[in-house]
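sorry for the late reply, my laptop died twice this morning and i had to redo everyting from scratch. anyway the thing you sent over, i finally got around to it. pasting the sequence first so we're on the same page, its 390 residues, then the predicted structure underneath. double check i copied it right bc i was rushing
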Amino acid sequence: MKRIFVLSAFVLMILSTRVILSQPDNYIDNENLVITHGPYLQNLTKDGVTILWSTNKPAIPGINLTTPDGKVQFVRNSHDGIIDGGELLHKVRIDGLEPGKTYKYSTNSVQILKYQAYKIYYGDTLGMKAVSFTTPTVKSEEIKFMVANDVHGNSGKLASYLKKGNLSTQDFLIFNGDMVDYTQSITQLFSGFIDTAVAYFATRKPFYYARGNHESRGFVAREFKDYFDFANGKLYYSFDNGPVHFIVLDCGEDKPDNNRYYYGLADYDSYRLEELEWLKEDVKSDAFRNAKQRIVLVHMPIIKEERQSHGMKFLADKFGPVLQSAHIDLMISGHTHRNAYYESGKSGFGFPVLVNSANSFLEVNVGNREINVALKDVNGDIIADYKITK
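ok and here's the structure:
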């Protein structure tokens, strides 16, 4: 990807688009350009961030970025020599940031009224009020984050978590799967949880996502990744923040690939084997080995039990031993819709597993030597406290 910095906020450039606007020469669309969803932050690192939003009409996306010293830069992305644009969904990556610094940004969307080979008409330029975000520091000794899962499209429940929790003190949030029932329409992602996240925090703090088994279902499940930004372009990935190396795993579906409900379109076992090879390499990395704490997020818990669904047994048989040998400090999961805590000696793999229910959320405080977790209900009342000490 090539980054483009331009001092002027009004830069109009010809681009190719997947949305082909081929109306007659005398046609001009005068509908006002509006932001329909977002913006929200993704993949925030010590030196970069990705900002996503959507508009009701095709547009060219850009970001007005104000650096800590007060300078303003205009950022657009390009691929293969072509400026990104012409879509309804917009994604701009900003690299070259400094750790532990606060930046301000505002989105810039230039409407495309007409796009033809030798005639392009531009419409409104739509901006927004600037908001700020802060990049992680290189060696923070403490971080705080919130975890929610199994909301299943109940945005009101998610809103209650965010209102009743200590949101202002959290560095970021993690959505640990099954945030919607299925993905037959992209609007389900927005109405189910993204719009709520934007309303409460996601314009200034990022969220990370672990796909659950329910997000795999539905016609637009193949487009799911487009609406997020993952470190390696995969639904399984790792990232570092403070003293923690996080591993985010994609559990896949819970039933065998040949189950009749998948209609011959499931290939999760081979996918999970591919993911397993990635995991084996990640736990060998310097980032993993040098981290003070190692936390795994995965929707379906990886534990040893006599009776398990196909997906959970696959993860236990193949992923469990790898994570056991790597000596992770904590696994956080959901899926079962009930709260449970498996101490290191009871998970079957020598690491503790905390399972969050469909009616509670977690607030996690991690230091160099200790992990403290508060399990809270929809009213923000503490159900249980956990302390994991190295």
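Residues 300 and 335 are 5 Å apart (CA to CA).
thats about all i looked at so far, will dig more tmrw
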